[in-house]
Amino acid sequence: MARIREFDEKLALNKAIELFWQKGYANSSMREMVSYTGVAHAGLYAAFGGKEALFIAALEKYQTGLFANLFAGVESPRADLKDIQKLFRFLISAPQDKHFRFGCFLVNSANEFLQPNEKASKKEMKSSGIKVATYPNINKLLQATFERKKQAFSKALKNAIEKSQIPKNTDVDAISAQCLTLYYGATTLIRSGLSDDTIKQSVEIFLKQLKASN
């Protein structure tokens, strides 16, 4: 008879998200994970698989929550300029948020895993602490998340054009790329612990530019 797991898998996964979110993949050992979750290594393996599988499960659950909450407005079929503004205004207060003070788990992971250039030297890849080719499933998930955010911003901007919130000749691809750059940059700064004023100024300048384009 199979042995019944004596722990809450949802709670264990939430704890795994917290540790990976705070320390990253490379700096989170399974020994630490056992201590942090309170679940034996055998139990974690039976429920989730190895470290990579657990990390992917953590990313997927975090992603579900992110799009159901922070990106819910921007992903709405009726999303427009106001929803984009609301998302970025949250980033101004994010450093004081209980969880977001660690930045965005998905952005943190993208910074850890994704390389900006496929021709990056072996020395550069080695110094990053991660071998990109070793984790195709993680990279695929992170790339898909990046594209999903881009599509959300793009759709909201198109709606904003239809509602005359921004000019008809607005370069949607360029502005959606700017939205992504600001989101990834701001959340990276939040994790770094740099001055909140830097984030606030960057977001406010961007929002003023959007408003001025109307």
Please give a handful of descriptors for the protein shown.
214 residues; mainly alpha; Arc Repressor Mutant, subunit A; Tetracycline Repressor, domain 2; 11 helices
Q: What is the radius of gyration?
A: 19 Å
User: Please, what is the average pLDDT?
Assistant: 86
> Strand pairing plus helix content: what structural class?
mainly alpha
Number of separate structural domains: 2
At the fold tier of CATH, the topology name of the largest domain is Tetracycline Repressor, domain 2
Which superfamily, in CATH terms, is the homologous superfamily of the largest domain? Tetracycline Repressor, domain 2
Got a strand count? Answer: 0
Q: What is the helical fraction, as a range of percent?
A: 55-70%
Tally of DSSP helical segments: 11
- The CATH architecture term of the largest domain is Orthogonal Bundle
Low-confidence parts lasting 5 or more residues at pLDDT below 50? 117-125
InterPro entries: DNA-bd_HTH_TetR-type_CS, Homeodomain-like_sf, HTH_TetR, Tet_transcr_reg_TetR-rel_C_sf
Pfam families: TetR_N (PF00440)
Domain HTH tetR-type: 6-66
Organism: Glaciecola petra
Brief sketch in words of this structure:
The protein has eleven helices and no strands.
Describe this structure in words.
The chain is elongated. It is mainly alpha-helical and 214 residues long. The protein has helices at 9-23, 30-37, 41-48, 51-68, 72-75, 81-93, 105-113, 122-127, 136-162, 172-192, 196-212. The chain folds into 2 domains: 1-54, Homeodomain-like (Arc Repressor Mutant, subunit A, Orthogonal Bundle), CATH 1.10.10; 69-212, Orthogonal Bundle (Tetracycline Repressor, domain 2), CATH 1.10.357.
